[in-house]
Amino acid sequence: MWKKVTSVAALSLTLMSAAHAEMVSFPAEILPLQVNDKVIEHSFFKSVDELELQPGSYNLKLKYSDLYEAGYDAHEVIESEPFWVTLTVESGKDYQVVFARAKNLDAAKEYAKSPFVSVKVKGKQAARTLPAVAPVTKYTPTPVTPAAPVAATATAVAPAVAPAVAPVPAVTTAPKAVSAPAPSGVSASAMLEFWWQQASPEERKAFLQKVKN
Length: 213
Description:
Blueprint: E1 7-14, E2 22-25, E3 30-35, E4 38-39, E5 46-53, E6 56-71, E7 74-79, E8 83-89, E9 95-98, H1 105-113, E10 118-121, E11 128-129, E12 132-133, E13 170-176, H2 188-198, H3 201-212
Parallel strand pairs: 1-5, 2-9
Antiparallel strand pairs: 1-13, 2-5, 3-4, 3-6, 6-7, 6-8, 8-12, 9-10, 10-11
């Protein structure tokens, strides 16, 4: 699995204090684009692969983007249209969004037509598919009751489920640099070419200026 050759930032979407937020992490191929009505900014130099969310229920806008070998010294970017899922975050739990990466280019193209993801609590093996929701064209938040913390006991307790929509959270960004190794079978030049094609003219200009300096 190839990793993004960019800086990685954690986005904090809080309803109360950051001390009570739970972490939701994403694989390199699944890009979080929006949480409720809050758009997440990605760039050539910075991408977001973690979110800090307060306990509650959220609508997430995601996108699948991957790079596959398409022949000798050739690669092809496979992307899906943005799709929406619902995620419920419980107090005291960190989550990891997962998906079964396609083994070849043709399988990746099929997955991109109807992408779906699962989520699991970090440290546990069991995962559940996130329910898909209709695209949100105009977001109208309604009050939400955060999920109540579950006390640790010897008896299993059913998790509390919050309403389907969370209030509009405040957004802060805290970038942190990440140096990711080049994936097996994919050259560094191919990765650079891939991210160069994804960058905007302004980002390309900034990158060239940075290299010159």
